[in-house]
Amino acid sequence: IDPAEVRRTLAVPDGQRFLLYLPFPAQTLKWAWWTHGVYTQPWPGLATERAVARRVRQWCDAHGLAMIVKDRRKAPAPPWLAELANRVIGDEPWEPTVLRLLLSGQAAGLVHHLSTACVHAAVAGVWAHCIAPQPPSRIPPYTRRLTMPDFAATEISTSYYNWPGVSRARTPQEFAHSRATWQYEVDPDSRQEYLKRFTGGETSELSHI
Question: Is omega for the bond preceding 42 within 30 degrees of 0, making it cis?
Fold first, then answer.
């Protein structure tokens, strides 16, 4: 992967790194099991995605990073998010994939909503932040038919969303309102264990990806 080519595509100046933000895919997950748990009822009072994205923008500004949003054709970034970003990258064939962006050597972090892109981040040695709500104490009747396996994953300290030294899960409220800078470095030993656990390989074995 040619870092210079990635910079040209992103229009990022030489020497500037970027933070990759994967928006909440509300349009495609309207009836998905966890859509009701992020930014909507029955979890009132949580931060909105706008608050989360603004926090990403603030973090980028504080550390001299570009904010790159990676959207999808079936779930394009809304106008308010495009205004916050330095650049919005889609999923057309000529545009870089999430994995290529993370492997470019220019990514300083990944913020996502329960996306398996966190595994790609670990392959690239990039710290990942997972935005996920905690399970409610009471599940309304209209959501009882929906399974919620990933809620449990975010509660476990050794899940692919939440692994010490590699990835961290936070609720929208924690992420949006915390004053932490989240400027984390991936721990090499933890990363090796993470890759063995979730990809079946070690760093050297994944160099072809």
Answer: yes
